[in-house]
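Dear all,

This email documents one entry for the complex benchmark we are building for the journal club exercise. For each entry we list the sequence lines for every component of the assembly. Then comes the predicted three-dimensional structure of the complex as a token string, followed by one or two observations. Please use this as the template for your own entries, and keep the labels exactly as they appear.
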Amino acid sequence: MTLAPADMLCFALYSTAHAMQSAYVPLLEPLGLTYPQYLVLSALAGEDGQTVGRIATALRLESNTLTPLLKRMEAAGWLSRRRDAADERQVRLTLTPQGHRLADQAAGIPAAFAAKTGLSLSDIHDLRDILIDLRSRLKPPVGD
Amino acid sequence: MTLAPADMLCFALYSTAHAMQSAYVPLLEPLGLTYPQYLVLSALAGEDGQTVGRIATALRLESNTLTPLLKRMEAAGWLSRRRDAADERQVRLTLTPQGHRLADQAAGIPAAFAAKTGLSLSDIHDLRDILIDLRSRLKPPVGD
DNA sequence: GACGATTAGATCGTACACGATTTTTCTATC
DNA sequence: GATAGAAAAATCGTGTACGATCTAATCGTC
């Protein structure tokens, strides 16, 4: 007998991830950011000047996803993409002043999202850690 | 201070959903299915002859996502798309014999996936229910 | 039974996501 | 210091996702 999507863990994960992105739209739209762009911005706010590859490892994305996304963020004036002088294969990403300001504005978003869930901080952390555990079972991190 | 993606619940959800889809590839590729196509197939295996709108509600997708996906599945010979005689606005989806055979082959996939996670059945159900709870907090189901 | 409002899908445009391949640069070893 | 192999991004093609809009069919009300 075929299991219905409604009963599948995978579908719960898939549909909840969509619901999460959808819940982020009203938080990100005023800033002009998409959800993956918000992740890149947050990663660079924590450590500026990272390479594309380092961001790719952190966000578990490929260069073929990031390159066009980063070009859009560069076109929006939030970051610069420059080849590393010491190793010209690498591209370093640096936030512009506007990018830093945007990151400051975005800093309150996780709290706003947490409020939307109606969950306690400890429930949020527990769920996060359960998901990270499942993720590591499915796809162990590469470099990093 | 900006929270790093690695510490965010939303990123745990986002990246674990990607890891899940990636873990499904070796299970689905031999059948020629993508992950959302697998969901449609499973939904129709449980109840054949559903409308596009009913599948959309069940999978929480929009018609603009489903229409091209369903056309690809029709082109692959797995289902037929026919206007309902009683209400020509609706399109009914019916599995072909090949579609039924494919669904039979796909019926073992959830168990194979569960094995990949290394989690117990009860852990899987618990996590599924936690995710469904979060999903309903973020985006209550519409029709259904 | 006409006609405005609603509903169901489809179409269009934009933005991910990723497999496969390509280009450029660097490194290792001779 | 030439060169094979490795590494980092970029490019290309396909398949989701979804907001906005469009079209065709049905429903509600008079």
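Observations: Helices of chain A lie at 9-28, 35-46, 52-59, 63-75, 97-106, 109-117, 121-138. The mean pLDDT of chain A is 96.
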